[in-house]
Write a structure and sequence with these properties.
This protein is α/β, with parallel strands linked by helices and 255 residues long. Helices cover 35% and strands 22% of the residues. It has 9 helices and 14 strands. The protein has helices at 35-45, 59-62, 65-72, 148-159, 174-184, 189-203, 213-219, 228-233, 241-254; strands at 4-10, 14-20, 27-30, 51-53, 75-79, 91-93, 98-101, 104-110, 119-123, 128-130, 135-136, 139-140, 166-168, 211-212. The strands form 3 sheets. Strands 1-2-3-4-5-6 form a 6-stranded mixed beta sheet, covered by helices on one side. Strand 11 and strand 12 (139-140) form a beta hairpin. The longest helix is centred in the last third of the chain and has 15 residues, at 189-203. The radius of gyration is 18 Å and the shape is globular. The model has no long low-confidence stretch (mean pLDDT 97).
Length: 255
């Protein structure tokens, strides 16, 4: 049976999301920004929390872990290579590992860059990927604990997933990301289409995610550092993609 997902806002601009296995009733929270918001989502869906799958150590992704574990006795899975501790962890995972949520299966990808041990959870059969703060719609996470080339390699790994993969990220940053992206590729028709779509979604009070990876590949400049038009836009024609990526990321930091 196909997985069901439930997306909800929490903190100021974080997203929480539940993934539910109808066959067994198992339900995982992808990250736990704050306990009460996850509990409200569980109440709304009628689902029972069995797992928390943590993408990285930042407090706005782990703040609810201890309280939720105490209340629900759920299993906490987290990345093995984070430099900062994550509370109440039962199992740590790295790329190549699989994680079960009832009968649903996630493949773990190492996506370092934002943090040193950041991971993504990809459910291939359900065509859904939880990418935390590595990839955002029309953006990517700040490169905090690694060098930009490491982040670029992580983004390439995500870019290699099938185009019809639905991407769930950790924050609602889409409109701000689009504003910046249009300074890099003002004439990209896919980006202009995404801008119109996202403006409509936000005006209607709706989330701009999930978004298909195929759409992101066409419109997100951080996935397009190896496309000549992006290199030209930052006056780096012919330079290695990782260097072009670093320049685009630096411009976003200053934007
Ligand atoms: Zn983060």
């Amino acid at each position: 049976m196909a997985a069901q997902t439930h997306l909800f806002k929490c903190l100021s601009d974080n997203y929480g999301v539940l993934i539910h296995d109808p066959a067994t009733g198992a339900t995982a929270a992808i990250d736990a920004p704050e306990a009460w918001a996850v509990d409200a989502a569980l109440k709304e869906t009628g689902w029972t929390l069995t797992d928390i799958l943590v993408t990285h150590h930042h407090g706005d992704h782990t703040g609810g872990v201890v309280e939720l574990k105490e209340r629900h006795g759920c299993k906490v899975t987290a990345p093995r290579h984070e430099k900062q501790p994550i509370p109440a962890v039962d199992a740590t995972v790295v790329e190549g590992d699989t994680v079960k949520v009832g009968t649903l299966t996630a493949k773990v990808l190492d996506t370092p860059g934002h943090t040193a041990g950041h991971i993504a959870y990809v459910f291939p059969a359900d065509k859904v990927a939880f990418v935390g703060d590595t990839l955002f719609s029309i953006g990517c996470g700040r490169v905090i604990e690694c060098t930009p080339d490491v982040m670029w390699a992580s983004l390439l790994k995500l870019r290699a997933l099938p185009d019809d993969t639905r991407i769930y990220c950790g924050h609602e940053y889409t409109l701000a990301n689009i504003k910046f992206a249009l300074t890099i590729e003002p004439d990209n028709p896919a980006l202009k289409a995404r801008a119109a779509e996202a403006e409509k979604q936000v005006a209607a009070g709706k989330p701009t995610i999930p978004v298909s990876l195929g759409e992101e590949k066409r419109a997100n400049p951080f996935l397009r550092a190896d496309v000549p038009v992006v290199a030209t836009a930052v006056k780096m024609s012919g330079k290695p993609a990782a260097e072009v990526f670093a320049e685009v990321r630096e411009r976003k930091n200053r934007f």
